[in-house]
Amino acid sequence: MLRTIKKWSRRLRGKRTVAMPSGPAIPPDLSAENVEIFQSVNHATMTSPERVSALCDAVRYVVSQGIPGDLVECGVWRGGSSMASALTLIEQGDMGRELWLYDTFEGMSEPTEDDRDFLGQSAAAQLELQDPNDPKSVWCVSQLDEVRGNMRRTGYPADQVHFVVGKVEETIPAQVPETIALLRLDTDWYESTRHELEHLMPRLSPGGVLIIDDYGHWQGCRRAVDEYLSEHGLHLLLHRIDYTGRMAIVGAPGVRRAA
Ligand SMILES: C[S@@+](CC[C@H](N)C(=O)[O-])C[C@H]1O[C@@H](n2cnc3c(N)ncnc32)[C@H](O)[C@@H]1O
User: What pTM does this model have?
Assistant: First the structure.
């Protein structure tokens, strides 16, 4: 019996994903357009094919629904997710929006006790064990010039891409767009996520999209989101993208908006 289950599970696994020459397996239900975008930004993102695909779909949604505002990403690393947004806007022929990329461009800020992964392992301990010079380490160090170059190569108008350098706790709300159509949060820790939510959520247009990259992976991020939503009486359906990514449409009919 066990052998039969294993055999079928192997067969099903084979059917459910498409292996890339290198990198993560691509689920077969992703559209050809999204797979192409994922493949062109994979070198510059830590996220999964599912999360890049969800982002591309969210960008198409705000364009097709005429949701006004800019696209914001907090925590960009090498810029791969923002590149995916830019490429999708170009595909949609919507090049009028501004893109806002917030990052220290020096790696992670200091975590607190709340910042633990889903297994309970402390972020501080993980940072201590890993080498900041290792590009794939939890330190997530990436230089501004590299990200600027990656964004330039998408072909999106360079004068509409804003790089906001520094800790979000210090740059927000001094440097923020008036209106946001899509807000993607990916700075991992409790304090930065909480700060971003407090200052940026009220700027999200009705029907705009909120994407949280680390809801499943980092406990501090989840706490920041749960606290914010509960304190502001926001009852969002946080749709699961994959084990960690979550996405919601904010301010749809019947959903109260943060003050
Ligand atoms: C997990 S990476 C982002 C991954 C990226 N979104 C992608 O698509 O691969 C986290 C990023 O958040 C940045 N970061 C962490 N804490 C920050 C803070 N307090 N303010 C600004 N940026 C921060 C780090 O420098 C790093 O680039």
Answer: 0.90
Asked whether residue 102 falls in the same domain as residue 217, the answer is yes
Phi, psi angle pair for 8, to nearest 5°:
-70, -35
* Residue 20 sits in the same domain as residue 63: no
Number of domains in the chain: 2
Pocket test for ligand 1, best of 115, 186, 217 (most atoms within 8 A of CB): 186
- Domain extent, residue 189, equals 39-250
CATH of the domain at 221: 3.40.50.150
Q: Which two tokens stand for residue 242?
A: 């994959």
Which of 48, 88, 138, 140 is the best mutation target for the ligand 1 pocket, counting ligand atoms within 8 Å of the beta carbon and taking the most? 140
- The alpha carbons of the chain give a radius of gyration, in whole angstroms, of 18
Q: Is residue 5 part of a domain?
A: yes
Flag whether 255 is in a domain: no
pLDDT in tens, 173-223: 999 999 999 999 999 999 999 999 999 999 999 999 999 999 999 999 999
Q: Do residue 13 and residue 85 come from a single domain?
A: no
